[in-house]
Amino acid sequence: MWWIGGAIIVVYALFPIAWIISISLKAPSDIANGQFLPSDVSWVNYETILTGDASELFLPALRNSFGICLIATAISCLLAMFAAYAIARLDFPGKKVILSTALAVAIFPVISIVTPLFNVWRQIGLYDTWPGLILPYLSLTLPISIWTMSAFFREIPWEMEQAAQVDGATTWQAFRKVIVPLAAPGVFTTAIIAFFIAWNDFVYGIVLTSTEAARPVPAALGLFSGASQFEDPTGAIAAAALIVTIPVVVLVLLFQRRIVAGLTNGAVKG
Amino acid sequence: MASIEMKNIVKQYGDGFPAVNDVSLDIADGEFMILVGPSGCGKSTLLRMIVGLEDITSGDMIIGGKRVNDLAPRDRNLSMVFQNYALYPHMTVFENIAFPLRLAKTPDDEVRRKVNAASDVLELKEHLERKPANLSGGQRQRVAMGRAIVRDAEAFLFDEPLSNLDAKLRGQMRTEISRLQRRLGITTVYVTHDQTEAMTLGDRVCVLRKGKIQQVASPRELYEQPVNLFVAGFIGSPPMNFLPATAKGNTLETPFGTIELDADRAAKVAGRDLLLVGIRPEYFEDASLVDEAKRPLGSTFRARVDVTEWLGDSQYAYIPYDAPDSIKAQLRELSKELDSEELRTQAIVSIDATSRIREGREAEFWLDSRKVHVFDPESGENLTRDPEAGAELTRMAAQDREEQLQDSQARAGGARADGERAGGAQVGGATAASA
What we know:
The complex is a heterodimer.
Chain A: H1 2-24, H2 44-50, H3 55-89, H4 95-107, H5 110-124, H6 130-155, H7 158-166, H8 171-200, H9 203-207, H10 217-222, H11 234-260
Helix pairs in contact in A: 1-11, 2-3, 2-11, 3-6, 3-8, 4-6, 6-8, 7-8, 8-11
Chain B: E1 4-12, E2 18-27, E3 32-36, H1 43-51, E4 58-63, E5 66-67, E6 78-81, H2 93-103, H3 108-121, H4 137-149, E7 155-159, H5 167-184, E8 187-192, H6 195-201, E9 204-209, E10 212-217, H7 219-224, H8 229-234, E11 241-248, E12 251-254, E13 257-260, H9 263-269, E14 274-279, E15 284-286, E16 298-304, E17 307-310, E18 315-320, H10 325-337, E19 346-351, E20 362-368, E21 373-375, H11 387-418, H12 426-434
Parallel strand pairs in B: 3-8, 3-9, 6-7, 7-8
Antiparallel strand pairs in B: 1-2, 1-4, 4-5, 9-10, 11-12, 11-14, 12-13, 14-21, 15-20, 16-20, 17-18, 18-19
């Protein structure tokens, strides 16, 4: 019986996506055709956003989104790796404080900081720049990265490192050659989560940017306009939404084996 | 290759608890030293202090004539096999074994030669490209050993390396470790709580209790001339029986009748009321099976047998006895310390497998009174220990060992000359030559 429940959940979760696909393939005149499938498959929406009118808005936004999110993810993973290692391995005063501060930052509503941030950014020249978005994205991604990664680091047996040290490794070598490869699944998982969070952000993107210099895709989607003021850009938005979903899906498919595989398996007795 | 000297080593944790308390121990070059004791006695801590994974609170740790207290593990050039092996799961067996060499920036062809030699010794040849996750427990254990022997370390350290293997494999690996150590002739410190390993592997055994050394001696001396109740109870399986006794002249009154002591030992125990007699299970025998000639050397007594265990090659009988409350409390305390839970005061006696003694019946037993030891119940001290005889046993063991070492190294050297092309036994040969 469990598969019936499973099927219901899958349909419930995937139906909107199917709908978006269907809309993205409908010509503007066909959108209100009253049926689920397009009466005629049309690529006009994709043409609009990739080569047509909306491409000036969409393509730079795509570039911004990729650049900003990748940089934010990389920085956040690197910092979180060191922080999580220290939290999992070392005993130092303030360990609890770091963890709870991270949690507090993570639950702080974005909308309540974004207005002051807007003012500050304008004053110091970060408004509408890549670093101007990377910094707030770090505040979104770092806490969760630290939490997930420290959980992964705790799983790695201490002996691994001690064995490496006895074998002649410095602390840094032991970390780099033994701990980091073992933590790789954790790092990948964290990286993907961090990337999603940054990729999905809308509020920072719309408030802290004004031109194509830094505007990310979610903000750009909100600025799409139809061919005339009587026409909704629904089809173009659906097509763009699909395109920005692709990297996320590809990422998950690419790394799911690494995420799932418990790499530490076989390290210790068994 | 180096000797290891410990001078008044103390390890105190943050809360002031001394896990290792004033330990002084000399381990000679090439010696196989066992650290043994019940859990929590500080044996692993001591080993980790030797290797440098644990800070030394006070005292001197001297390896090969150099004080290493403040050296990091990587600068001590020791190799260690961990209890859970600590293999690197993301590397192949080859890279696992090669890891110490890679860290030392050894040229590639030398790495290959040394790893191949080590894997030959440990019969890991066909597994070199596999990952540790795909190996059996025994194979993983061998990989861990390979990583230890691949470089020319000053000493090997083993931290309960066999405790994760099943009984059969443990026996095989035990002989393997013994053979390897003889062949390489490298100073070895081996931590275990398994007394079979302690007795069979060690040149000398160091018994620890609550962070303090109780006795350091050859296995034979430990068995026959223990210094105190703790060592006597810890070494031997089934354990030594302790019976309450009162001294009367040259005799001891015990629940199992009167035991006569020779004049020498009688003098040592004179002037004390309550004593504990330590008798190993094999000093007993079914009286009906004892030679007439042997009979006068011991005493006989009758007792009711509670349970018998027939094991094919031997047979054990359990005989309950009564003891004064103070002795009972003392024995319970001791058994708790030895990680066992003795619920009732009973003697375990070993009788011939053919004996017809049955459970629930009364039977006549004979006990060999020549080898019994008498302990002071208060201090636990062995009153009848003969240090001379004990030292002689250890001297003999040392001599045997010397000969064995020469033999096996001569053989390893020969093998090297034969197998130059095959590359076999080079690890052993090289070390023998440098010795």
